[in-house]
């Protein structure tokens, strides 16, 4: 079955991408363009953000030309597998679930997740530690999860579809909740502000960015989350070399791209590029 | 092709198809009432009433359904005054926003379908009624409306099928209809082809049923019988 699948994939892929298999072709990097400050668009429709600038830097280190393309979040991984582009830099956390279908470079930045409410919500006083790690939750973290579970009971909790945040909310760590999922973070923000969502979960910086730009009283509540369902930082999403077969031309090229990105991230980290960009876009050093 | 995923997604997609069906039927019923009302207004000789009805159908047929549902769901929620009124209880719910958008949309098309059906009724039929001494009101309810409904069946059947596919937009306002659940499964399996084939087949089956129902009704109420 696997072999048959691979053959079908290869035939399909070679049909689809005839003429674009030159090794010196541009590296196509996809981003969502709707998750500020990680990646977004300015008024002119140009892609901007931490990952857009980092992508250009990494390309310079790799020494190949790049093209940054926009892709909706829900089709991000399938389109990578169909070779519509070669890499994903879209605030995508490295998780075991995703690693089953694609591979990741080493992480380049930490995504710190947080709950957010509108000012005046009864969740504002929630007493929890400043941050909890869910990889091996200690007693304080477990107690915090209980507090959150009690706080979220009977509330509508909103988040973006297909994210680590959705995985966490469905993991049962905070009990059974009334969850609503959206295509983009912008829509989550709109419904949080309108009052359809009582509380939302996303990258903390996404809420801070929204509060600053819109002037709406969005406040972070509860602890910041990391580890467990939240993955191990954000990395470049790449195709598994095995998808095409490790000894095929395309498979070798995918493996080579992973090495190139890892090396480029090493260099960018050493030169302080990632820290500088993180401070510029997030206001603090989220590099890793 | 992941056959296992196809089989596993069916039990999740079938209940979602019921949500789609519920959205479709509710909107069609409300849309039919709106459509009939506006079709009658369109036949009115008063220019203001006539233009008002025309404006409604022009507006809702001239803009994409996606834009309409976004304006009703996200747009209305931005008006702070509205949030303090009783209307907010309705607009707050994605389900009602979808029903409102779909009903207004299908109502506009239905009004056009019915209007043209009314206008194709031969003058002779109405005159025959009058010559028998039947009142205008009875002629309208017992002769014009039944003929118009029969006339508009083929076009209305099309409208039902278009609306069925239109309901897939409910997923853009967080409703878990057939498309919504399909997208949800894809977000965890990353396999769009398999899941969309199943979802597409369910839509196709529903279209098949609607098509045959309309064909049956057309035959049953055929003029030649």
Number of DSSP helical runs of chain A: 10
* Text of the CATH class of chain B: Mainly Alpha
Low-confidence stretches of chain A: none
What share of residues of chain B is helical? over 70%
Architecture of chain B, CATH level 2?
A: Orthogonal Bundle
- Helix and strand sequence of chain B: HHHHHHHHHH
- Assess the beta-strand content of chain A as a share of residues: 15-25%
Average pLDDT across residues of chain A? Answer: 91
Order of helices and strands of chain A: HEEEHEHEHEEEHEHEHEHEEHH
By oligomeric state, this entry counts as heterodimer
Give me the secondary-structure category of chain A: alpha/beta
List the helices and strands and how they pair.
The complex is a heterodimer of chains A (288) and B (225).
Chain A: H1 2-16, E1 27-31, E2 40-41, E3 47-48, H2 50-62, E4 66-70, H3 76-81, E5 87-88, H4 96-99, E6 103-109, E7 113-118, E8 131-133, H5 139-152, E9 156-160, H6 164-170, E10 178-182, H7 185-194, E11 199-203, H8 204-214, E12 218-226, E13 234-238, H9 249-270, H10 273-282
Parallel strand pairs in A: 1-4, 1-5, 8-12, 9-10, 9-11
Antiparallel strand pairs in A: 2-3, 5-13, 6-13, 7-11, 7-12
Helix pairs in contact in A: 2-9, 2-10
Chain B: H1 3-43, H2 47-62, H3 65-77, H4 80-83, H5 88-91, H6 94-120, H7 123-131, H8 136-166, H9 178-189, H10 192-220
Helix pairs in contact in B: 1-2, 1-6, 1-9, 1-10, 2-6, 3-6, 6-8, 7-8, 8-10, 9-10
